Amino acid sequence: MLKKLKTLGGGKREKKEIIINIETLETRVAVLEDGKLDNFHIERQEDNRIVGSIFKGKIQNLEDGLQAAFVDIGLKKNAFIHYWDMIPEDAARLEREEGVRAKSSTRRRKKYKPGEMQKIFPIGSEIIVQVTKDAIGTKGPRVTANLSIPGRYLVMMPGTHLKGISRKIDDVKERNRLKKILSRLPVPENIGLIVRTAGSGTRKVSFARDARTLFEIWNDIESGIKNTPAPCELYSEPKLAERVVRDYLTEDIDRIYIDNRELFEKTRQIIAKFSRRSRNWVQMYGGEEPIFDYFEVEKQIESAYRRKVWMKSGAYLIFDETEALVAIDVNTGRHKGSKSQEESILQVNLESADEVARQLRLRNVGGLVIVDFIDMKSKKDQNAVYRALKEALKKDRARTNVLQISQLGLLEMTRQRVEESIFTSGYVDCHYCRGRGRVKSPLSMSVEIQRRVSECMRKDRNGTHSMRVTVNPQVLDRLRKEDEQALIDMEQEFHGHLTFVSDGHFHIEEFAITNDDNGRVLFSSVES
């Protein structure tokens, strides 16, 4: 049985572990910090994830009003590309790689005049694009001509001479060392390179190996561009487990545990290309207990699917994911409080800021997010919570934009939407409530039924009023126990006769009114 590692050196540094679970239908990866789930990724066998893939496509149509084009890349839905993403630009590449807006891209996007883009990219012309966002719902994938291919320590950017260091590496001496290494690397013409954060402290030989691998990938892509007709795929990102190892494996990762022998051997081989010592970080898990249960990950994942998330202090968050936005409500719950109400509110909001950032990563939520923090009168406290959320979001690989807390006490932010959230991809709408989460009460249905019966009787005062009303058993129970007298009064008023029938196949919100004499349906809420 595996023993869980103690923090190396006895220091305060958080212990970081990657847990990889391989199953027939899906692969799951958990990144833990001191045993707490910090990041979670899932990839199913039937998923057709294409983010990062490079395609040779054909322009299908240009929409000057949208300032965008639609490109056939060989999928069911055409890809969408903004005009300003069709012509490679260094600033856009940096913005995408760094996850923040580059200084040189703060200028307004160029607006193309009607017919201007048609001259550069006529209908049917070919374009090389990379997917930045998967097809979600009814929308096709989003693509760009600003190509970038990540390696272990470097990001290769074909079609540019750009060379730089990730801004997340802020040590001046280290940046100077890395600049010297970059300048001495033999780089083919028209290829740009950016040193990733993982490159900090890395030896020159590791950069050389990484660059060589990337250049080989580009050679294969160039061959496809020349020899393969459009539309076609030229490059695809590796599977989830390999991507996680590539993107997360840095010096501060203590161990990687894998429960699949084949992937275990493959991962060790991949890591050995960069560092023979680092391959010892990878361990094979062979315990009888499922790996996610052993490392106590399964229970933590369940919280990412819950609407209510409890925090250590006793406060809790409510997550509501809608089509337009994600609303997060902060509540004090069982929080015992501090010396003053203001201090207590600040503590809850600061704890919530950190948990909100973590939950956004775990749930892979994208788009517009509204956080309703507990009202704070002090501007100083509001700024403290705003800064805490900004700091917590630095861990997020998705691009985020956070606005100050508004006068209504709401914080608005956006998070880059690359693929569907784990909730959307893991759940389907309930066939009974149709995704609303609620159904009408028996009282509401009784009111509606009485209204419709009354309407049917009024339409033909001189005719027969012998009617059969078919309802759900729960509604019939309500009619019998609570509303019998109201129905008798209706029969007397219209000189009619009502028969109520229960049908277990009827949804609680469904009912039908039929003329008992000739069988004609007078009203039905049953969907055909």
Structure overview:
With 528 residues, the chain is an alpha+beta fold. Helices cover 31% and strands 25% of the residues. The protein contains 14 helices and 25 strands. The protein has helices spanning 90-98, 116-120, 172-184, 204-227, 240-248, 261-274, 291-294, 298-303, 341-363, 379-392, 422-426, 442-459, 473-481, 484-494, and strands at 16-22, 26-33, 36-44, 54-63, 68-72, 79-82, 126-133, 142-144, 149-150, 154-158, 163-165, 191-195, 232-235, 255-258, 282-284, 308-310, 316-321, 325-331, 367-372, 400-402, 410-415, 466-471, 497-502, 511-515, 521-524. The strands form 5 sheets. Strands 4, 5, 6, 7, 8 and 13 form a 6-stranded antiparallel beta sheet that branches. β4 and β5 (68-72) form a beta hairpin. α12 (442-459) packs across α13 (473-481).
Describe the structure concisely for a colleague:
The chain has 14 helices and 25 strands. It is of the alpha+beta class.
